[in-house]
């Protein structure tokens, strides 16, 4: 009887272990099945797998006994971290990250041999080439995406190499995609995070002024500023990148709130670019409310930010607080609400103010840019980190144009559509409203892209045709004809 019981127990134990092993195998198969299937050399397959950019330029081709990269050497170098290589040195490259799509792997059927599998990325090789040339051998990262569709248009990391002809001695960090797999001291671009927290947690911050005498003492430690800014609003403080003002704001907010917003805005978390995990940033809370706390709100101390996270945050400011999640594979369908539309609009407006009044709109003809720069001291005699984060708000311009152009439509027919005692009074009112609309958008720098003579002509003719009741109706429309001509002219420049 004891022997029967022992055998039964042994059989049940073996069955239990088999079931456990089966579940482990299924789990590993789901997780690693693709890697198992792709372990053997794909060159033995008769299929062809092609990786291209958004314009159809071949970045890599494999299968059918051959493996190749882009024909142009500069393209191979500029797009190396996007493409990756066949040896898997760049683990975040498309050749490694999107193996299943390139090979046609399926969990049920495995790898089905098929011909002419084409995977098209959203990246534009021409943009990558220009960005890599602009870096001019410096270590750095450049990333651009369409914040309306999520399409990643440019992703460049330097230093880079030619995967077809790699050098004997590799430059330091050649395999690291600095756009998504590294984090750096952010400097003043982190002030956007502190500013966002301040707008939502400090009452009447718009009506306050901040004093800057060139430095501020925090518990015996001097925090230096870039200049002596005197009394300034929060908008001016951001434009001046005033360390004194943001040190005061950081201490008022406290470490918990800033840490909360750093996480909420995606700065300190690992994000996803399609299936690729990005490098998480860092924000160390200093509860002593010392100079370290002040420096952390400025973007120094132990702060670290991944360029991808900062680009994504800029997209949220540009898009009314909503992030269309970036993608290398096509238009994104996933969105994330990072912050309120009101806060996003305020930060975007301040970033635009920074460009117009600090850097000068004349540097960016035909473009409505909102941006923030940052310089991060990293110590040990190393060169400072330089950052530029921003966006092009071209959609705002078209909205402004449509709104102002609609006003004369009430009277171009020869008679008023609104019954008023005196037509001249209504004309005067229309002129004032028209001027107010134009002045508002001029203040917001939306129309500053147009040539000065055009703007002067629009303003003068708006006054004349608005106040005087001309019988010739086309004069009412003439200022907008000029505006349309200016719009078309600048749009042609932009498209070129």
What is the gist of this entry?
This protein is 44% helix and 15% strand. It contains 17 helices and 18 strands. Helix 7 (191-201) packs across helix 9 and helix 8 (234-240) packs across helix 13.
DSSP summary: helix tally: 17
Question: What would you report as the Rg, rounded to the nearest angstrom?
Answer: 29 Å
Q: How many structural domains does the protein architecture include?
A: 4
The structure class reads alpha+beta
Largest sheet: 4 strands, mixed
CATH superfamily of the largest domain: DD-peptidase/beta-lactamase superfamily
Assign a percent range to the helix content: 40-55%
CATH topology of the largest domain: Beta-lactamase
Mean of residue pLDDT?
A: 78
CATH class of the largest domain: Alpha Beta
Annotation, overall tally of beta strands? 18
CATH architecture of the largest domain: 3-Layer(aba) Sandwich
Q: Based on the structure, what is the oligomeric state of the protein chains?
A: single chain
What portion of residues belong to β-strands?
15-25%
How would you explain this protein's 3D organization?
The chain is an alpha+beta fold and 496 residues long. The chain folds into four domains: 1-37; 42-158, Penicillin-binding protein 2a (Domain 2) (Alpha-Beta Complex), CATH 3.90.1310; 187-392, DD-peptidase/beta-lactamase superfamily (Beta-lactamase, 3-Layer(aba) Sandwich), CATH 3.40.710; 397-495, no CATH class. 44% of the residues lie in helices and 15% in strands. It has 17 helices and 18 strands. The protein has a four-stranded mixed sheet with strand order 3-2-1-6. The relative contact order is 0.08.
């Amino acid at each position: 009887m004891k022997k029967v019981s022992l055998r039964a127990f042994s059989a049940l134990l073996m069955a239990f272990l088999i079931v456990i092993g089966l579940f482990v195998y299924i789990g590993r198969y789901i997780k690693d099945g693709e890697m198992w299937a792709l372990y053997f050399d794909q060159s033995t397959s008769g299929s062809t797998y092609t990786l291209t950019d958004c314009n159809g330029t071949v970045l890599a081709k494999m299968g059918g006994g051959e493996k190749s990269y882009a024909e142009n050497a500069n393209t191979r170098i500029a797009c190396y971290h996007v493409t990756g290589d066949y040896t898997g040195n760049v683990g975040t490259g498309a050749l490694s990250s999107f193996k299943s799509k390139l090979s046609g792997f399926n969990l049920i059927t495995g790898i089905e041999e098929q011909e002419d599998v084409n995977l098209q990325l959203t990246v534009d090789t021409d943009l990558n080439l220009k960005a890599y040339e602009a870096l001019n051998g410096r270590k750095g990262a450049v990333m651009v995406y369409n914040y309306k569709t999520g399409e990643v248009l440019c992703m460049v990391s330097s230093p880079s190499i030619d995967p077809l002809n790699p050098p004997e001695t590799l430059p330091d960090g050649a395999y690291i995609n600095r756009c998504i797999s590294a984090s750096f001291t952010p400097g003043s671009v982190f002030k956007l995070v502190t500013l966002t927290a301040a707008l939502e947690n400090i009452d009447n911050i718009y009506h306050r002024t901040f004093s800057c005498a060139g430095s501020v003492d925090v518990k015996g430690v001097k925090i230096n500023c870039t200049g002596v800014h005197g009394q300034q609003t929060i908008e001016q403080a951001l434009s001046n990148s005033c360390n004194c003002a943001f040190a005061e704001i950081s201490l008022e907010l406290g470490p918990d709130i800033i840490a909360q917003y750093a996480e909420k805005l995606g700065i300190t978390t690992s994000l996803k670019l399609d299936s690729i995990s990005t490098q998480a940033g860092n924000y160390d809370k200093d509860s002593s409310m010392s100079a370290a706390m002040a420096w952390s709100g400025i973007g120094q101390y132990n702060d670290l930010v991944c360029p991808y996270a900062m680009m994504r945050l800029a997209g949220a400011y540009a898009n009314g607080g909503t992030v269309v999640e970036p993608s290398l594979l096509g238009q994104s369908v996933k969105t994330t609400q990072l912050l309120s539309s009101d806060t996003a609009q305020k930060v975007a407006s301040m970033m635009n103010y920074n460009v117009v009044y600090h850097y000068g709109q004349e540097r960016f003809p035909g473009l409505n840019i909102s941006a923030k720069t940052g310089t991060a001291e990293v110590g040990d005699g190393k060169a400072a980190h330089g950052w530029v984060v921003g966006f092009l708000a071209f959609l705002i311009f078209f909205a402004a144009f449509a709104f102002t152009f609609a006003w004369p439509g009430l009277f171009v027919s020869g008679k008023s559509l609104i019954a008023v005692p005196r037509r001249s009074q209504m004309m005067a009112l229309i002129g004032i409203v028209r001027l107010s609309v134009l002045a508002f958008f001029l203040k917001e720098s939306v129309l500053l892209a147009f040539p000065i003579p055009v703007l002067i002509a629009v303003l003068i003719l708006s006054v004349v045709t608005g106040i005087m009741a001309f019988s010739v109706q086309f004069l009412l429309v003439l200022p907008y004809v000029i505006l349309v001509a200016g719009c078309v002219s600048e749009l042609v420049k932009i498209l070129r």
